[in-house]
Write a structure and sequence with these properties.
Number of strands: 24
Oligomer: single chain
Largest sheet: 7 strands, antiparallel
Number of helices: 24
Structural class: alpha+beta
CATH class of the largest domain: Alpha Beta
Distance between the termini: 97 Å
Number of domains: 6
Strand content: 15-25%
Length: 655
């Protein structure tokens, strides 16, 4: 008995650490498969011994929350669901009753309250008893009805999620999430609990109702009617099918077939009795309600051979082990690699080259290793970083071992300079996102900026990378070759010199007639004569081009590009030394950027705020009470219309 108790305590510790990481810190330290396996083993031991310890996850739901958001206790505890992986269990559970089978969305459960047709409160599930109040954030969910036709008291539950397509777009546009958010659920969790709801709105969080808790309406005792009523009130509802014993097996298969094309993250299905009164009459256990049950997909597990461990360095210095194995077919696709996440998981699996391993797709999507059948444990942890060759360090945080590169000069840690080089306003290489650049650097394909122009040499490697194929590789090569023709201003901006933005790069390039030799050799005294270039900028500029390492980087890039010389003559620089601010709508130009380009082409500069150095504020509504107008009047800055600006361009006079 003593040995069993010790083993139970060890399982509880591991499960609780996984729960804490998942619910409080939005990260994963073990796969769903490993968690479910541990949980089931613990539950079986508790049943055998008759002992359930007070900190067992079979008793608790979630974790105490840690944030500065207000907390609130739910009127009714929000329990988790009992689960099964067997369709036969679903069939027996349903019996002769009619059921509602729906997606189990993988996001954050929210309780919404409406009064008088208005959304007045939104609270997260939290630990099942106490949640966080996120009302302001809920009001900016992409698909939430803030006002509804029903004016009574309404309480409903649903799942806040971010779609895979929105996640991929956001992950590229939001560099602060890179390395922090690994999947849509993590990004959604962080977005829903923001203190600034502007961030929530930008991240395209959507809400899908799955349960009506309270409303003074006759629903003919039907859960299905409740959901359809919510749909008519303007809510998106979770997709569902009406089922009986006769059609539940084929309906589960129908859901399974939809997974590959489904844009919303899901980790299974939920079966609920349509008969509301019957479901409520069944009551609940200490942990589960009895009116619903979750169905988790039975994992398609295949045996294969581990070929190697690839060590992938990231911008944080973290070096992750990636398992490379003989390709196997899983859920209709060929799979040959899976993240092992950290050293602790790798050591627990006792991985070794040549081992027979079992692999599967977690939630039928993410490749994972479920078990190691031979456990030869012969992997050597690298003492040197695969990218820079610098020394590595094993860290142990909360009993989780991870590997880090400790070289501050490691290329993997300088990913920002590479992504800036190919960004839209710099060389504009489409298809080279930060995530893709990180992969290319981690594989050693790119070691300096000029290497970007030679990625065609690595076709065999890149086309096998996740998310890449023949077509995307060809598009990337075409985009790289297109970027070879550039302007002096774009090239200057691309090197990321401190304080030298695109506008200043244009001013400097124009000053030296797009002559790169003169641009690179510009003296401090020449730079500070340019309007808008101060002492700090000039110092940073000269210091950058004096550095031998930077000189080599620039020289190597110059061998790959062709600088187009602007046709603008010095006589066209009629706005040189003039500083403009633009506000309000424009009528004679396509947009503000078009107007800005017209100013910069003639030697002028556009800034975002009105200061004592501003010459003109361009605003078609000179009588408006905008903050820029007020500031201009306070400082005595002249406010001119677009028409006056055009006259200034054509005649040198605004009136």
């Amino acid at each position: 008995m003593e040995d069993k108790l010790l083993l139970m305590k060890e399982k509880i510790k591991l499960l609780n650490e996984a729960n804490k990481a998942y619910y409080q810190e939005d990260r994963e330290i073990m796969s769903n498969y490993e968690y479910d396996k541990l949980y089931d083993e613990l539950k079986k031991m508790e049943e055998e011994t008759g002992i359930v310890l007070s900190n067992s996850p079979t008793l608790k739901v979630g974790y105490e929350l840690l944030s500065s958001l207000p907390k609130e206790r739910h009127e009714k505890a929000m329990l988790s669901l009992d689960k099964t992986k067997e369709v036969s269990v679903l069939k027996d559970w349903l019996g002769e009753k009619t059921g509602m089978l729906s997606w189990k969305l993988d996001g954050l459960t929210i309780v919404m309250t409406y009064e008088g047709g208005k959304l007045i409160k939104a609270v997260t599930r939290g630990n099942g008893e106490i949640g966080e109040v996120i009302t302001n954030n809920a009001k900016v969910f992409a698909n939430i009805p803030v006002s509804i036709a029903y004016k009574g008291s309404l309480v409903l539950r649903g799942e806040a999620v971010i779609s895979y397509s929105d996640f991929n777009k956001l992950n590229e546009r939001l560099p602060e999430t890179e390395g922090k958010y690994k999947n849509p659920r993590n990004l959604c969790s962080g977005s829903v609990r923001q203190l600034n709801n502007k961030i929530t709105a930008e991240r395209k969080v959507r809400f899908y109702a799955f349960t009506l808790v309270k409303a003074d309406v006759d629903f003919n005792n039907s859960r299905i009617e409740q959901l359809n009523w919510l749909k008519n009130q303007g809510f998106n509802i979770v997709e569902f099918k009406k089922v009986t014993q006769d059609n539940i097996e084929e309906t589960v298969k129908w859901f399974e077939e939809q997974i590959k094309d489904k844009d919303l993250p899901s980790d299974g299905l939920v079966l609920t009795y349509d008969d509301i009164k019957y479901g409520e009459s069944l009551g609940r256990t200490a942990k589960f309600p009895r009116d619903s049950i979750a169905f988790k997909w039975r994992d398609d597990i295949k045996e294969t051979t581990l070929l190697e461990i690839e060590w992938s360095a990231s911008r944080t210095g973290l070096i992750n082990p990636i398992a490379i194995f003989e390709p196997v077919e899983l859920e209709g696709t060929s799979v040959s690699r899976a993240s092992v996440h950290n050293l602790s998981i790798m050591e627990n699996l006792e991985l070794g080259i040549g081992d027979s391993i079992n692999v599967y797709k977690a939630n039928m999507i993410i490749p994972q290793i479920s078990d190691n059948l031979t456990r030869s444990n012969n992997i050597e942890i690298p003492k040197h970083c695969p990218v820079c060759g610098g020394e590595t360090l094993i860290k142990n945080d909360n009993d989780i071992k991870t590997l880090y590169c400790i070289n501050d000069e490691c290329l993997a840690k300088q990913i920002k300079s590479f992504t800036h080089f190919v960004s839209r306003d710099a060389l504009n290489v489409e298809g080279l996102s930060e995530a893709t650049m990180e992969k290319l650097i981690a594989k050693g394909l790119i070691k300096e900026l000029a290497d970007i122009f030679h990625i065609e040499k690595y076709k065999d490697i890149i086309t096998k990378m996740e998310g890449f194929g023949e077509k995307s590789f060809n598009n990337l090569v075409n985009s790289v070759n297109k970027a070879r023709k550039t302007t002096a201003a774009r090239l200057l901006y691309s090197f990321g010199i401190t304080n030298i933005g695109l506008s200043n790069a244009k001013l400097i390039s124009r000053k030296f007639g797009d002559d790169w030799e003169k641009i690179q050799d510009a003296k401090y005294e020449e730079l500070i004569q340019i309007s808008g270039i101060g002492h700090v900028m000039a110092n940073n500029y000269v210091k950058f081009f004096s550095n031998e390492k930077n000189k080599t980087i620039v020289e190597d890039v110059l061998k790959e590009v062709e600088i187009e010389v602007s046709s603008k003559t010095s006589s066209a620089q009629s706005l040189e030394n003039y500083i403009f601010v633009i506000t309000g709508s424009v009528e004679h130009f396509k947009n503000r950027d078009d107007l800005k380009a017209a100013i910069e082409e003639r030697g002028g500069k556009v800034t975002s705020s009105v200061t004592s150095k501003t010459n003109y504020l361009i605003n078609n509504d000179s009588l408006s009470n905008s903050s820029k107008n007020k500031k201009a009047k306070e400082l005595g800055i002249e406010i001119i219309t677009e028409e006056q600006f055009i006259r200034l361009l054509n005649t040198g006079k605004k009136d």
